[in-house]
Amino acid sequence: MFAAAGGDLAGSVVRVPFEVVKQNLQAGQYRSSVVAVKAIVAKEGLRGLYRGWGSLIAREIPFDILEFPLYEAFKKMWSRRKGKSLDTWESALCGSAAGAIAAACTTPLDVVKTRLMTQSVGVQAYRGIWASMQRIAREEGVGALFSGTTPRVLWISLGGALFFGGYEATKSLLTDQPSVPVAASTKAT
Q: What is residue 176's DSSP assignment?
């Protein structure tokens, strides 16, 4: 769980500038990626490409803290109930469920991240994660914090199935072992 959070933190150095550009393109702020990068750097310097970095991390770390332990718990429960190791497709379903739950729970943080990343330069309507959540809830209702939950849950659920299914399949191929040995699933970690 902490390793995943550390990996997300390291990966965010590269991911955040792409996320800022993507979010601004989706919001209709710029007509191309090149134009977006040039405009953001001209107005804010390189720092502008990292606008919303804290909110991305504030979304990713809770997501990881939920997804990875849920995945492991679902695998253990299913393996015990089944009485044998899970097949890859079963592990993929566990990953899908874990991703769906983590996505739904962290959608408010995703909404805030998007608002912080796409606000116009010089117009800071949203300042910080908690203040942004409060403002959105006050002005638009609590439901606005869950805008986009369904598509987010669907794509992350699918991604979780592919990621964890692929992970378990690769692990099985490399170790020539079942993906979730029953004995290992009952040991305390």
A: T
